[in-house]
Each structure stands twice: as structure tokens, then as C-alpha cells.
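Memo to structure team: turn this sequence into C-alpha cells by end of day. - J.P.
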Amino acid sequence: MADTNQQSPPPQLGPLQFLMSNKLETAMWLSRLFTVYCSVMFILPILGPYAAANFYQRALLANALTSALRLHQRLPRFQLSRAFLAQALQEDSCHYLLYSLILVNSYPITMSIFPVFLFSVLHATTYTKKVLDSLGPNSLMFIRNLLDKLTSNQQNILKFIACNEIFLMPATAFMLFSGQGSLLLPFIYYRFLTLRYTSRRNPYCRTLFTELRILLEHFIMKPACPAFFRKMCLNSIAFISRLAPAGV
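Reply from structure team:
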């Protein structure tokens, strides 16, 4: 009699039914895959430089769409208030929405596309595994193994992204002096970098700043380092430290 009262497990959804039952997640997954595609077509300009520049803008616009959807998911109730804006600026999705809008009309450089590309790859990995599970527990093992390798190297990838975020700051200054950037670009990007430095969910930018400072101080304190170079580096470290947000 007890067996007759047991409920059978719900049937597993097929891939199409699974995608349609999670429309917002599916939309973000597709936009991330499109960002990955456009990023690869920019990094490997097999269709020529003009097409590569178009793919650069498409990648950033697709990333802006993904970030906007993710921000809506995190903060579904929009309010026109200072408190809501402060809360939104704490979200990583808001940071990369601003990042995409800052750089979408700038001169295309490979360094600026890597954070968008790698974040899209990492964030698409989890949902891709769920899609593969809807096909079957042992489906497409080659892709599963590739996704597992990406997951196991997530920390190194996040550090590389943070490195790109940091060194894009001097790159924007060089773009200004070479005539390939606007006057406001370094100042707006500095604001983005301060948001990344104070990020609660992603401390890698802040951690990498500390590691670079320790590495540079260790190098310049060696006896073989020229005194003028040591003084220049110490002044640069002090200047950058003053630019860091307070209270972090």
C-alpha cells in the first residue's frame, strides 16, 4: 500500500522546454554566446579590419545587453532615487554595463575586449552545463570536459581580467595622447576602475593592485636598482595610492 502512495519523479525537460522555461536566463546565455562569437571574430580578424571593428562594437553592445538583463534580475524594482543608484553601482553587472558604454565608441584595442570575452565565457559555462544535462547526463562529454577545465581555471582567468582592467587605465591615457581617444575617456574609465576596486563580489582587482605594489617595491629595493628609478617608482606608488577609494 505504501508503494502506491509514492509519487514518481517529474519527467526531465528536453533542451527546448528547458530553455523556454527559463527565458531570462536563456536570453542572457544567448547574448553571452553572441558576445563570445563577436569577440573571437575581433581578436582573429579573418574578415578584415573593417569587419573586426564592427565585431568589436557588437561584442560590447551584446555585453551591455547581458549586463542590463543581469542588473534587472538582481534589482527588479527600478526606483528613481539616490539609494537605488548607490545600490546599483555596487553590482558587478552595472560596472560592466558602464564599461561597455564607455568603450563602445572608442578606438578598438584587444586589451579592452578580453574582460568582456572572458566574463561571457565563464558566466555561460554554468548554464551550458544545465543545457547539456537536459540532453542527457553523458551527452557531449568533450564539451563537458572543456567546461570543467574552464571552471578549474576560473581564479586565474579572473586575475587576468583584473590585470586587463588595471592596465587599460594607462592605455586610455596613451590613446588620448596618440589622438585615438577622447579627453573624457581616462577620467570616465578611472571612475569605472574605482568601482571595480571597491567591488564586494569580485575582489581580484583590489588584490592584484596589492600584489603589483608588493612586487614592484620588492624589485626597486634591490641594491642594483638605480636611485632615480627607485624614487620615480615610489612617487608613482604614492600617487596611485592617493587615487584609491578610501574606506576599502
